[in-house]
Amino acid sequence: MVHVNIFDTTLRxxxxxxxxxxxxxEKLEIARQLExxxxxxxxxxxxxxxxxxxxxxxxIARAIKNSSVTGLARxxxxxxxxxxxxxxxxxxxxxxxxxxxxxxxxKYKLFKTPEEVIxxxxxxxxxxxxxxxxxxxxxEDASRSDLDFLVKIITKVIDAGxxxxxxxxxxxxxxxxxxxxxxxxxxxxxxxxxxxxxxxHCHDDLGMxxxxxxxxxxxxxxxxxxxINGIGERAGNASLEEVAVALNIRRDKYPYxxxxxxxEIKRTSDLVSRFTGMIVPGNKAVVGKNAFAHExxxxxxGVLKNTLTYEIITPEMVGIQSNxxxxxxxxxxxxxxxxxxxxxxxxxxxxxxxxxTAFKQLTDRKKEVTDEDLFTILTxxxxxxxxxxxxxxxxxxxHYGSANLPTATVALHTPEGVRVETAxxxxxxxxxxxxxxxxxxxxxxxxxxxxxxxxxQGRDALAEVHVKMTVDGAQxxxxxxAQDVLEASAKAFLNTVNRVFFNQKAVVQV
Length: 510
Known about the structure:
The radius of gyration is 25 Å and the shape is globular. By secondary structure, the chain is an alpha/beta fold. It is built from 16 helices and 16 strands.
């Protein structure tokens, strides 16, 4: 059976989703989970794009040992130099360098002739080869490029030292038959193609990213690129969890293997969804809440008799446990520690104590604490930043009634350590609270989005709020959770504002 490498770009292409803003600790936590998931290569970011991205890529490169870490670079020496500085301490550093090859991109974006594009690509691959043992070269907008031109440029960049050739469907334009044919043509016409691996990278603008990726595999691709939950620019990328499960379930048609640990799918999906604020739709394949739910009486009857009648994927395959062990107020520290270790979290003694305290506080208000509750507590604690000046919520009170004007009173500690307090009104209780918080914060704030989601089920479920705003002109997103919707809203608001301070400090020393 042919082995297919999995290239995850959640931390690069995925983070380019509008409104997504991950801090360094969140990126590192996702990277560690991707390592547990078994991805062969993870694209940690675009080091030359900002100092923050450089620091995050460097931290991930130093922390990850069982996956190869790569960074994106434009076809310029400065980008390649910066990428090397970020990646040189990785266990297996590699570079992903790209240049557009379609006529429309070369003419209207690059203002280069085809010959200039070839020369630049060859020169930059050769330059990178002086440092990087593995170099992936991407032909941006390959699916709209001339095939004979692709043959010519691929031949030359392989001679220059490229070890992986990526032919992306950058704008999600190709159909499966077209995309598969492109790879077949390259395999049949590039004389030195045996010296490099072929990779696919598909966008989902026409809803065919996963189908195109599978078509590419059928035509000789041995590396698939994509993201968790299919996040990414515009309509997103190919969903890696869908590709992985398709290869597993349909082994009769796809005789290929991967290193992915399928039982880590749900946890990986949940982690990315929580940190990015991009909620997974209920009908999402493989990881949606309704993926294993049956409403139709005919379906329910069939599943009760034999699950294979309507379920081709078992919940356990992707990490959904039917025998979810719940913890309560009488659960001790040992049981709690075992539980979080089984969930894949490794906490320092200090953070373990903090998590146990938060767990005990929750059991005072909630009879049973589920995996989803613990996941929320643990991810908050793992990504909390210490020793950074920030706004802290001291107290708040909201007066609301159908015949009264909603009014909120809030007391905060400012980053300078000063207690401030005021009250404001609003058309609703949440707006009154937000108006009051905004009045107490000196930074210029504009709230652009507010989302409320429940963690788990039942009337005592935790509320989770995601907000997006501009803070002094910078687009920032954040989250907060609590049993009370208003408290979760206040936490989310302050978490978002405080990210401005987080981003001003190198928070991870690896």
